[in-house]
Amino acid sequence: FIIESNGDVKGFGRNAKGEVGNGTTVDQLTPVPIEGLSNIHEIIPNNYGYGHFFAIDNDGNAYSWGYNGSGVLGQGSGTFNVPTLIPNLPRVKKIVLGEYTSYAITTDGDVYATGANANGQVGNGTKITQMTFTKLNHLSNIRDIVTRGKVAYALTESNNVYSWGIGVDKQL
Q1: Is the predicted pLDDT of residue 154 greater than 80, yes or no?
Q2: What b/e readout covers 100-115, taking b as 16+ CB neighbours within 10 angstroms?
Q3: N or C: which end of the chain has fewer CB within 10 A?
Q4: CA distances to 55, 110, 111, 170 from 140, in Å
Q5: Is the pLDDT of residue 97 over 90?
Q6: Can you give the pLDDT at residue 50?
């Protein structure tokens, strides 16, 4: 992706799951404008290679598109080949992507999560897949989140650390 100086976005590359965001699943060999993305501050790639992306604009709105396995996009079920505004999510300052689980930190320091949850990695006290972003009521004043596989760690503004997810190797 290329974020231009005015916040518009162009995309290109592999597109089997709609990850370019241009409404197709045809590989895009040259940069094309991505409709619906403007005033963009950041694009967040999935480092696990599952073909989905998020973007945050300068107003804190969050968008997602591409592969939606286990509801990782926070949009419910369905296919999203174009960037789509994530519903019911307050202003976002950061999005962190885990393995089939996504976390959003709001400008108020609250955390919302969506996606695969067989090991409790969403952090909502269940092991039920979460198809849309849900607020994690037990976390507040969060500065950052780091994930590794099916484990997540949250750092508060006062430097306290919380962890959740699978803990079979004492990583919690």
Answers
A1: yes
A2: bbbbbbbeeebbbbbb
A3: C
A4: 23, 5, 7, 24
A5: yes
A6: 76
What token pair was written down for 148? 């590794």
Q: To which residue do tokens 């709609």 refer?
A: 18
Whether 140 has a pLDDT exceeding 90, the answer reads: yes
Beta bridge partners of 56: 42, 62
Residue 170: partners with Cβ closer than 8 Å, 6 or more residues away:
none
DSSP state of 86: P
Pairing of β 2-3 and β 62-66:
unpaired
Backbone angles phi, psi at 21, to 5 degrees: 90, 15
Each residue's pLDDT tens digit, 98-117? 989 999 999 999 999 999 99
SS3 call for 18: coil
Q: Where are the alpha helices (DSSP H) in 27-155?
A: none
